[in-house]
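Dear H.,

Thanks for agreeing to be a second pair of eyes. The structure we're designing against is below in token form, covering all 349 positions.
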């Protein structure tokens, strides 16, 4: 019966990777006794957006095996990388960028990181907006200072299950940094290579707006898995978002998708929906995958000012659910990206 159980599992495909769970090495354990099958599936990310579908497909396939009356499905997760890690211990570096400021890029980056961490991933967050750092404030840790460990490497701070570094925790509050390009390059190098990030599934990088020195330093320094573009729906934002996309493509960084932020507003008193900045404008960006439409929500702003990401403070709100969907869709895109460099047949764990 064990052979029949494994044969049944081989008919179940991962909905995003379009290969069966057995050849992908996602079945950690499959045993049967007394008519009860025990199956453990290792997902390609803790934030798998299609976990429920996979569980249902496994149950249907296994219950079709003669003699099996019950199926117990459990899950683990193992984030894979198609090649060498971007940094020691860091599997994927994901850039969150925008063509212009004011589109909510940092808020999206913080909530992506918080959502992935809540789902069980090991997550780091680098605030690469050196001139206008905001991540520390949004995580409620702006008063803390970065220290060095015994190896004289910067020790990232921690908040909400996220390891993070920000210039706000290295320089006096309110002090302007008047730096030229080489100094920016040196700072980014230190954030990446002189910090004790430890083992991470994802390092989210909140970029400054535009297409300047920081973006070039990052793309030329390490292997980046991909980038996310944050924009609002109106044309003035989309024009600049298109420039950011062009920059990433010239730097050979895959653009994994677009987040349309402030996509619409639902009036709390009437429930009516207003497209304040238009809606659906991200469809003009060359057919890139839409990771999600995030509504304009006052709670997101309040939560950011209070130092707690909206996905944690108000997880049932429309904005938080949209941001959670963005994070999970991004994790799925990363898994698909990694598969391109994996062998056709992976060993069974």
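And this is the sequence the design step returned. I haven't edited it by hand at all.
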């Amino acid at each position: 019966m064990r052979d029949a159980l494994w044969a049944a599992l081989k008919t179940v495909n991962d909905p995003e990777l379009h290969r069966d769970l057995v050849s992908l090495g996602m079945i950690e354990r499959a045993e049967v006794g007394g008519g009860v099958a025990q199956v453990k599936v290792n997902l390609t990310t803790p934030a798998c957006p299609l976990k429920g579908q996979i569980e249902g497909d496994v149950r249907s396939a296994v219950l079709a095996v003669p003699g099996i009356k019950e199926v117990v499905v459990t899950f683990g997760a193992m984030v894979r990388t198609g090649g060498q890690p971007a940094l020691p211990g860091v599997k994927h570096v994901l850039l969150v960028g925008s063509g212009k400021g004011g589109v909510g890029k940092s808020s999206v980056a913080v909530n992506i990181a918080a959502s992935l961490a809540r789902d069980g991933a090991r997550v780091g967050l680098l605030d690469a907006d050196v001139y206008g750092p905001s991540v520390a404030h949004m995580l409620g840790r702006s008063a803390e200072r970065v220290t060095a460990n015994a190896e004289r490497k910067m020790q990232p701070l921690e908040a909400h299950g996220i390891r993070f570094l920000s210039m706000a925790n290295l320089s006096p509050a309110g002090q302007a940094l008047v730096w030229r390009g080489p100094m920016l390059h040196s700072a980014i190098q230190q954030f990446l290579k002189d910090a004790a990030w430890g083992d991470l599934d994802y390092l989210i990088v909140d970029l400054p707006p535009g297409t300047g020195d920081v973006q070039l330093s990052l793309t030329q320094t390490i292997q980046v898995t991909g980038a996310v573009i944050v924009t609002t729906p109106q044309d003035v934002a989309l024009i600049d978002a298109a420039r950011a996309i062009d920059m990433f493509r010239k730097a050979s960084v895959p653009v994994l998708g677009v987040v349309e932020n402030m996509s619409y507003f639902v009036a709390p008193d009437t429930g009516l929906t207003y497209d304040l900045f238009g809606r659906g404008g991200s469809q003009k960006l060359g057919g890139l995958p839409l990771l999600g439409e995030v509504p304009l929500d006052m709670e997101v702003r309040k939560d950011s000012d209070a130092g707690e990401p909206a996905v944690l403070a108000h997880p049932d709100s429309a904005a938080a659910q949209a941001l959670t969907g963005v994070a999970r869709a991004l994790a799925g895109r990363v898994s698909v990206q990694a598969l391109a460099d994996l062998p056709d047949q992976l060993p069974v764990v």
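Two observations from my side: Residues 344-349 have pLDDT under 50 and may be disordered. Residues 318-339 form the longest helix (22 residues).

Warmly,
E.
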